[in-house]
Amino acid sequence: MNKEYDSNQYDAIYATGGYEGVYELHYRNSGYYPLFSEVHRLLVARGCRSVLEVGCGTGAFAQLLRDRSPEVKYRGFDFSPVAVSRSQARLGSPESFFVGDAKLAASYAGDWDAIVCTEVLEHIDPDLEVVSRWRPGAYCVCSVPNFTADNHVRFFREEREIVERYGKLIDIERVHRIKKPFLSDISTRSTLRALWWNRYRPQRFMGILGVGSFEWLGGWFLFSGVKR
Length: 228
Fold this sequence. Notes:
It is a single chain. The protein is globular, with a radius of gyration of 17 Å. It is built from 9 helices and 7 strands, in the order ααβαβαββαβαβαααβ. A 7-stranded mixed beta sheet has the order 3-2-1-4-5-7-6, with helices on both faces. It has a single domain (7-182, 217-227), classed as Rossmann fold (3-Layer(aba) Sandwich). The chain is an alpha/beta fold. The two termini are 30 Å apart.
């Protein structure tokens, strides 16, 4: 089983931009864009006015939220000081981000009515302890992957597994699948270049176009509901 990474390991990842520089991309060009867009849609549909993001990374979702819903109050934290520094620089808003540990109650102080926690729970051994610290009544939007990685301590194969693991802590209203883009950089230029390079590789060519199963392409289970 993979081991949970410490903050120094994540500092090294964020300092180099992550796989293919994905953490340095503008959110519209990032492979995480489909996920972040759906998170934003859920928050807006719920009428959330203040958001705390657990594991803000380099601030891509925060930037999307500011651009699309500037009226929503936002704060985010990460236990990687490098990630927090990159977030602060990306938005030019040092007060919006802080270094915090998802396992500690102090990280959840303040006024917020929604939790966003994407691509975090699969990295933490005591994930249920983390969720248990969230304020009862808060609206929670979270994602977990259907694929393994060196820094994943778990992954999920079907919706039932998410409900079984987190349903006692969150009154889950919906679990749905979001395919992971084949490319880390989904900009038009990058996509066209990749299509050209793979024009004689039918499976990869179709994957770049998003044609393929959730299981083959990989993706995220996005789930939302109210903290019990």
